[in-house]
């Protein structure tokens, strides 16, 4: 993935070696109940879904993790495919020292591009950052924007994110109390 215009960070697909740094980025948000905490095994199982931002100057993050090129993971985000036309943006997090430097915007743009390249037509998210996602074309939704047949299939998932998308009673109010949003590609 290309380096950003600011040239202070670059995006790339995540590697298993990044997952401890990703967890370190998520932890402060999970402690404040902004993101869901996960077990380490969950990060490794989802490594293919993640894109990471890494600094070009070797500056550290909460974990101080650097890859073999000397960059440090300063942001992350994942795209979880839910159905043939639908995915969810998950685990979008940026190190506090890098907030306000468009890292989150670049990560979200990369995830939306990934969704489009997979032939998906809709991207869902649960967020407290409504204005941020609205700036990227997401809109608040009520209900579940899938057919009854797809709804029945998605009910078979054990994933809490899918349950929140479906607005199931077992996650009401949704786990964190955030806003359900959708982007039509």
TrEMBL record:
InterPro entries: Acyl_CoA_acyltransferase, Bact_Acetyltransf, GNAT_dom. Pfam families: Acetyltransf_1. Residues 9-157 form the N-acetyltransferase domain. Keywords: Acyltransferase, Transferase. Gene3D superfamilies: 3.40.630.30. The keyword Membrane does not apply. It comes from the Bacteria. GO terms for molecular function: acyltransferase activity. This is Amino-acid N-acetyltransferase. It comes from Isoptericola luteus.
